[in-house]
# Entry
Amino acid sequence: MRVIARQKPKGAKPAPVGEGQKSLVELIGRDVEIHLQSEPFSKDDSYLCRPLYVTPSWLGVVSYYRSQMFFDHIPLSTIRYVRGTVYYKRRLHSDPFEDVDFDAPEKVIDLVNKEVIVALQGLPSRPDSEFKTRLIYVKKNWVGVASVFSNRLLPDHIPLTAVRKITKVVPIGRHAFNRPRRGR
# Structure
């Protein structure tokens, strides 16, 4: 009679006791990898970023791409897991996060009456899953936004479970679009 032994998954082993155990609050200002929930048979959306704040229902993170910083406010219900240690292969000469205030960050409630980009849960290929709007209110289970389309004001009330993230985009650095134009 032949016995088939079940093998453990290869490639990882448990960490030793007492080493590298950190809570999510202790990861503020450090590089992390966040995986958001997605469709059952598709790959999770992931972000390389640095956490700004943690509240009972929101996680604030900051990331950058080229000449813009993205301040994302993500509901905790949309996060699958947060991986705490990320090593980058390429080191930058300057730190793009040097102007970010990790001690007193701007939370999602501070974005009321400001222009933001709201991403809704769903397939990433859908054109209406992300839109630019003005944030009106943030409650425990609801988010209020207002947009203007075809000369009509459209106030929307979106449940928090339908929101994937709320993003505020800030340009960084000295680039051609930030320089004042010369007069002729």
